[in-house]
Amino acid sequence: MTDPVLHLDNIVKTFPGVRALDGVSFSVMPGEVHALMGENGAGKSTLMKVLGGIYQPDGGTIHVGKEQVTMAGPLEAKAKGIVFIHQELSLAEELSVAENIYLGELPRKSFGRVDWRKLTEQTNTILKKLNVGFDATTRVGDLSIANQQMVEIARALTVDAKAVIFDEPTASLTDAEKVVLFDVISDLQKEGVGIIYISHRMEEIFKITDRISILRDGQYQGTVNTSETSEEAVTQMMIGRKLDLSRMETHHELGDVALEVRGLSCGKLYQDISFEIRRGEVVGFYGLVGAGRTEIAETLFGLRDPSAGQILLDGEEVRITSPNDAIARGISLVPEDRKGQGLVLGMNCRDNMTLPQVQDLTSGPFVAEGAEVAIFDQYRDRLDIRTPGWKQLVGNLSGGNQQKIVIGKWLSMHPSVLIVDEPTRGIDVGSKSEIHKLLRELAAQGYAVMVISSEMPEVLHVADRIVAMYSGRIMRTFTSEEVTEDSLIQAISGLSGHEAA
Amino acid sequence: MKPGTLSKALNSGAIWGFIVLELIFFSIAGEYLSLSDKAFMDWENMLLLLKQSAPIGIIAMGMTIVMINGNIDLSVGATYAIAAIVLLESMTWPIFAGLGDLVIPVAWLLALLVGTFLGALNGLIVWKTGVDAFIVTLGSMLGFRGIVFMFNGENPTSHLNWTLVDFAEAEFLGLATASWFLLAVTLVIWFVMTKTVHGRNAYAIGDNREAAVNAGIRVGPHMMINFAIIGFLAALSAVVFYSESGSVNPNDGQLYELWVITAVVLGGTKITGGAGSVIGTFGGVIAIQLLRKGLGHIGADTSTVNLVIGLILIVVLILDRQLNVKGKEELKV
Ligand SMILES: Nc1ncnc2c1ncn2[C@@H]1O[C@H](COP(=O)(O)OP(=O)(O)OP(=O)(O)O)[C@@H](O)[C@H]1O
Ligand SMILES: [Mg+2]
What sign for the dihedral angle of Cα A457, A459, A462, A463? Predict the structure, then answer.
């Protein structure tokens, strides 16, 4: 047997009030893709940050090859051949793609000057491998989230890596970029690089990984060979119970049309969009990134002005001019970029959740603390948010738990039209099905729900009807009875234009 | 058009458009309102304007770096005054008596060293304590000014060295010494910010500090270097100005921080850091000086000048915010 490229032994890491890692051991072989799985807050990112030199462990040892090492900082980890692709986009938006890819180690000339030629050349070589549509000098802030993620991934190719850590790299990618990512991973694999792959998407795990290690509440649960296990078994190890993954067959009466859109267009972003959502109905919007789904949601939420078409709420034509306006009319949007748009990282969990309704939660001149805490408690239990208490700063929660705070925030507003953009991105399987259940329940209570998702199982799972979009147009609308995976894929690739319903 | 393009174009070009507008306005208004019959757009007058921009301008270059880096420095005015006192006072010290005119470079060096040291001290405190730069430099602003008053009470500190005055009043290729210093500093800082690793890292830190830390950029030392640079430039500004005037009042340099910050912000540097340009700041400095001079030309008094500049600053900030919000489709929760 070969030796592992990387071996972590008995790692302990504590934060105030949280034992994030409790004696975790873990090793990676050369040329293997090793999945690290666990619920939100199980400690996956923390373990990787210890490995990447961002956190110092309170106990335990790290070996790279045969040599025991201490990772004093991110550059040191990188120098030892460990590349870390972060869960949260870790980019400087105002800088160019090249500067971001080589952040922290720009090539130098004399007098501390940046060697721009070398930088641009190296970057363009990497970008060519990744097959992306932008070049080294593009400003990162001008890229879509998916492309920003590709910039992040490009960092894996800048050095001769021994091990590359991908912390939920596909959370904001869709199928086209995913193929490229998996190619990159298999190339690295052929070169004998060990890959650590963190994801909540079971299909991916079973497609590309060789072994799976599982964490639960900071404790190591064991390692299994991917080929010898099943989704259920892994889920059971992760959450300690079985999960019912069957389709939600809860049928209920549909009410009147709550939201109708007629011939809506917004410049080049999308054209001639017409659909309706009834009370009690969940409508899924499925398509590739750039298909215009998020932009439609933003228009409905008053963030963009449509160039043509009508929006009708309860049969009455409205003009939604701002998010405040949208909220007042009972529309809520759980945005795609939750960290950037939905959270105040330096504020505590409770305040983040009740932020939009603070005006309503008053007792006399004061904010009604009790009511706020009650709301927080309700959604913490509902969404299974892992935090030592409502006083914890949101910035200290795990990635998935931050997402849940945003979702809780908008759900607690009790909107009549709820728009959710990628509601379960980065959320573990257990909570995922919890959120799906919640969306179904909200619909059953008479809300109209619009779900934008790039995950096919998700739309198939929750939606009563599915709108398939391709490059700014609606290709076809399916009911949940008639939809099949094949017809859906065809529609979002633009192959069934004539059948448009 | 990509989102943000408009605001970016405005940020980079607007300041020059604004300057042109000012020139046109003051030329025309000057025809009717001015008391003197000299034209505003006179070549001599413009050269004088460049020279008068130097004290604020030199410091503004340092402020650009510090603000791009995500910090701010309120203590520059006080540092300026301290450096001026060191410059003038040290020339009278008995230990340097034997040096003759060689005392000039020594005094310069001393003043610059003191400025750099005070700047670095600010930087060190910000780095090691993690306290916001606004608070730290607010404290040092008061502290440094206190030192100035402790030194000579309410009295001015004066010393005239004629060799020095000659040097400061000299002109080379039609430009005054102070103008040359401003141009040289602008060039050097522009080089640092666009061409060097340190400059690019400063942008990265101001833009997304966590990303910079994750990438292994050592945030603290970069910040300290930038504070040292602004301290150095505040001292350089004092050195250039007081070589000519030869007398410093304990209140000199007060409100400089505000003028400097106004110029930097007008020049398009983001208050939150991460974006901005040295060339833009240069435009901001010229625009403010034009406004001061132009309003004076048509007979407005100082308080009117301050009022107008304040209003313009607020309008610029509102405009910038508006454009950014529209461009990026931000949530306005
Ligand atoms: N800087 C910090 N301060 C305090 N607590 C922290 C900090 N970072 C992480 N934690 C806590 O440590 C635990 C593990 O977090 P971690 O980010 O490793 O989870 P994760 O497994 O990556 O989850 P996810 O799937 O949601 O990304 C969580 O309970 C989190 O709240
Ligand atoms: Mg994580």
Answer: negative
DSSP-derived secondary structure for B48-98: HHHHHHHHHHHHHHHHHHHHHTT---S-HHHHHHHHHHHHHHHTT-GGGGG
Element (H, E) at A431: helix A429-444
Contact A350, A372 (CB under 8 A): yes
Q: Where are the domains of chain A?
A: 6-239, 247-330+419-501
Report the SS3 class of residue B121.
helix
pLDDT in tens, A67-101: 888 888 888 888 888 988 887 788 998 999 999 99
Q: Could you give the angle at which helices B256-266 and B278-297 cross, rounded to 10 degrees?
A: 110
Is the distance from the beta carbon of residue A42 to the nearest atom of ligand 1 less than 6 Å?
A: yes
pLDDT < 50 regions, chain A: 497-501
Where in chain B are the domains? 55-282
Tokens standing for residue A351: 């305040």
Which ligand has an atom closest to residue A400 CA? 1
Q: Which residues in A214-237 are b (16+ Cβ under 10 Å) and which e?
A: bbbbbebbeebebeeeeeeebbeb
Sign, Cα dihedral of A479, A480, A484, A485: positive
Superfamily of domain A6-239: P-loop containing nucleotide triphosphate hydrolases (3.40.50.300)
With beta carbons under 8 A apart, name residues in chain A contacting B203.
Answer: 92, 94-95
CATH architecture, range A247-330+419-501: 3-Layer(aba) Sandwich (3.40)
DSSP A2: P
* pLDDT tens readout for residues A334-372: 887 766 666 777 788 888 888 777 666 666 666 667 778
Contact A104 B215 (CB under 8 A): yes
The crossing angle, in degrees rounded to 10, of helices B43-68 and B197-207 is 70
A331 vs A274: CA distance, rounded Å: 18
Q: How close are the terminal C-alpha atoms of chain A, in Å?
A: 58
Find out whether A470 and A494 touch, Cβ atoms under 8 Å. yes
Given an 8 Å threshold on Cβ–Cβ distance, is A103 in contact with B4?
no
Residue A478 has what DSSP assignment? E
